[in-house]
């Protein structure tokens, strides 16, 4: 597909989706939300891609909604267009969460509003030391969307989530790492290399085991221990009967590195 505000690249089992409105800090505009969802679907279906990376072009990861466009909607009282924007965000974060593949946010700069929650929707986050994150919705009289009320309290707890949402402060990278919003923070000049190293390590892992573990971790948030033990048994048997388990066990006994991703 050809996109206006999104770039899609594939290399060495890694699919990279880059938000590409650098002059506007990659704020969402026009069909950009739909393009993100379509690009994610494309990478999900591509058997050559084992890991998906989402990042931003230029100085920002994503500044959330384009406030100029939002002002037009307010002026027109265009309720339908506003609902469509929020629903497009729902499609993006649902696609990320339901993806069978690891999805990494490589946060290269400011991530606020819907852009912050796009990062939080990803499975793990690696960030530049110049990155920042903010639940800035109420600065313009709005409520969090893009799954923020789901992801944030699960990462930092309800009291801290309320603090971040109510105060609408922008939190710098070191504090984001301390709170668990970012898994890792690296010097800005090393972000691309560190992201690729992380993504490549995951692309070399057994895809089935990673996919089943992703589903298990997220399902465990709403399931009991007995339910999860049943899930683990089923997932373990799927892995045991797969070619990945044969290769992994053989490689271990032969004292060599397993070649799980050799087909990609």
Q: Can you describe this structure?
A:
The structure is a single chain. This protein has 264 residues and is an alpha/beta fold. The protein folds into 2 domains: 6-203, 2-enoyl-CoA Hydratase, Chain A, domain 1 (Alpha-Beta Complex); 207-253, Lyase 2-enoyl-coa Hydratase, Chain  A, domain 2, CATH 1.10.12. The chain is built from 11 helices and 10 strands. The strands form 2 sheets. It has a 6-stranded mixed beta sheet with strand order 1-2-3-5-7-10, with helices on both faces. α1 links the parallel β2 and β3 (51-56). α1 (32-45) packs parallel to α3 and α9 runs antiparallel to α10 (225-240). The mean pLDDT is 94.
CATH class of the largest domain: Alpha Beta
Overall structural domain count: 2
For the largest beta sheet, what order do the strands appear in spatially? 1-2-3-5-7-10
* Span between termini: 21 Å
E-strand count = 10
The largest pleated sheet is described as: 6 strands, mixed
Average per-residue pLDDT, rounded, comes to 94
Helix count, DSSP H or I runs of 4 or more residues? 11
The third-level CATH topology of the largest domain is: 2-enoyl-CoA Hydratase, Chain A, domain 1
Percent helix, as a range, is 40-55%
Q: What does the radius of gyration come to?
A: 19 Å
CATH architecture of the largest domain: Alpha-Beta Complex
* Quaternary structure: single chain
The CATH superfamily name of the largest domain is 2-enoyl-CoA Hydratase, Chain A, domain 1
Shape: globular
In percent, how much strand structure appears in the residues?
Answer: 15-25%
What is the string of helix and strand elements? EEHEEHHEEHEEHHEHEHHHH
Quickly give the structural class.
Answer: alpha/beta
Low-pLDDT runs: none
């Amino acid at each position: 597909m050809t996109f206006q505000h999104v770039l899609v690249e594939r290399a060495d089992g890694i699919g990279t989706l880059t938000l590409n409105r650098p002059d506007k800090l990659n704020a969402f505009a026009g069909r950009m939300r739909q393009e993100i969802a379509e690009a994610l679907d494309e990478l999900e279906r591509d058997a050559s891609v084992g890991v998906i990376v989402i990042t931003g072009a230029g100085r920002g990861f994503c500044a959330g909604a384009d406030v100029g466009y939002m002002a037009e909607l307010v002026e027109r009282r265009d309720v339908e267009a506003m609902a469509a924007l929020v629903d497009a965000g729902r499609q993006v974060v649902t696609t990320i969460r339901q993806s069978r593949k690891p999805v990494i946010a490589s946060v290269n700069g400011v991530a606020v509003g819907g852009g912050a929650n796009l990062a939080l929707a990803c499975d793990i986050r690696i960030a530049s030391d110049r990155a920042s994150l903010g639940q800035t919705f109420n600065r313009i009289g709005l409520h969090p969307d893009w799954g923020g009320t789901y992801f944030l309290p699960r990462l930092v707890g309800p009291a801290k989530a309320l603090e971040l949402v109510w105060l609408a402060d922008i939190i710098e990278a070191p504090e984001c790492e301390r709170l668990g919003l970012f898994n890792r923070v690296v010097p800005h000049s090393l972000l691309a290399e560190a992201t690729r190293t992380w993504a490549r390590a995951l692309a070399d892992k057994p895809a089935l085991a990673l996919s089943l573990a992703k589903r298990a971790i997220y399902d465990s948030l709403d399931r009991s221990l007995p339910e999860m033990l049943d899930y683990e048994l089923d997932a373990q048997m799927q892995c045991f009967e797969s070619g990945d388990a044969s290769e992994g066990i053989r490689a271990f006994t032969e004292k060599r590195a397993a070649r799980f991703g050799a087909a990609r």
